[in-house]
Amino acid sequence: MSLTVHREGLEAGRLDIFVDGAFAFTLTLLAIGGAEIPNDVDKMVHLLGNVPAAAACFAQMARFWYGHVQWRTHCTRATRGGLLLSLLLVFFALIVVYPLHMVYASLFNSMSGGLLSSDFGLHRAEEVKSLFAIFGLSYFCMSGTLAALFRHAARVAVVHGEDDFVPRLRSVLWLIPAGVGALSAIVALSLPNDGPVWTYAVPGLVYFLLVGMSWISRRMRARAGRPD
């Protein structure tokens, strides 16, 4: 192993450790009780109502983190572009965790009639619009950064004469949630303040467009003659 390859491996490893630690920190912000330790059963039961929202947030943040893990498998070299985009991903992760939790908390609160995440609820149209707009833009930033990371990995692969199909595919696949997040934000900001109550669910329903990602992936692989 050459000295250059060894140094690049160390630099890549240090970056991955930093990213992993940053995501782990964001997940600690989702602790159901925060700094509050329940001292009786009623408080414990009350805090347990936050578990579904925390679990949904955990799954979403884990998906973003695993996107970075997948990127590293296609870009093992330490590059300035990879460093800057990884740091940008961490920056956005520290921002998105709050609107992410608020969206899921309000969702479970409304679905359960206030039994779950009872400390949080949306009461005015402006609140719903602002929350979905912020969340949509945050989702766009996280997914867009991952798309840029995979695009960078594809360019690095081409430079070194390696196969760039998978990183290019994953770059396109991450552009889909980025576009959905942007669309949801636009829909939220376009809603009238005095519209019917059901219209305020539309920005959230936009995310159901993501269910087609697996089909798109299979179609792209089939057209390129690549197995799943």
Please give a structural write-up.
- It is a single chain.
- By secondary structure, the protein is mainly alpha-helical.
- It has one domain (3-223).
- Helices cover 73% and strands 0% of the residues.
- It is built from 8 helices and no strands.
- Helix 3 (51-74) runs parallel beside helix 5.
- The protein is globular and about 60 Å long.
- Residues 1-6 have low confidence and may be disordered.
Task: Output the keywords.
mainly alpha; single chain; 228 residues
Describe what is shown at a glance.
The protein has 228 residues and is mainly alpha-helical. It has helices spanning 3-28, 41-48, 51-74, 80-111, 125-159, 165-190, 202-205, 213-223.
Query: Which percent band covers the strand fraction?
Result: under 5%
Rg computed from alpha carbons, rounded to a whole number of angstroms: 20 Å
Tell me the number of strands: 0
State the low-pLDDT regions, or none.
1-6
Number of helices: 8
Estimate nothing, just give the exact number of structural domains. Answer: 1
The helix content is over 70%
Shape: globular
Mean pLDDT: 83
The biggest beta sheet reads: none
* Alpha carbon gap, first and last residue: 33 Å
Helix/strand order: HHHHHHHH
Structural class: mainly alpha
Tell me the layout of helices and strands:
Blueprint: H1 3-28, H2 41-48, H3 51-74, H4 80-111, H5 125-159, H6 165-190, H7 202-205, H8 213-223
Helix pairs in contact: 1-3, 1-4, 3-4, 3-5, 4-5, 5-6, 6-8
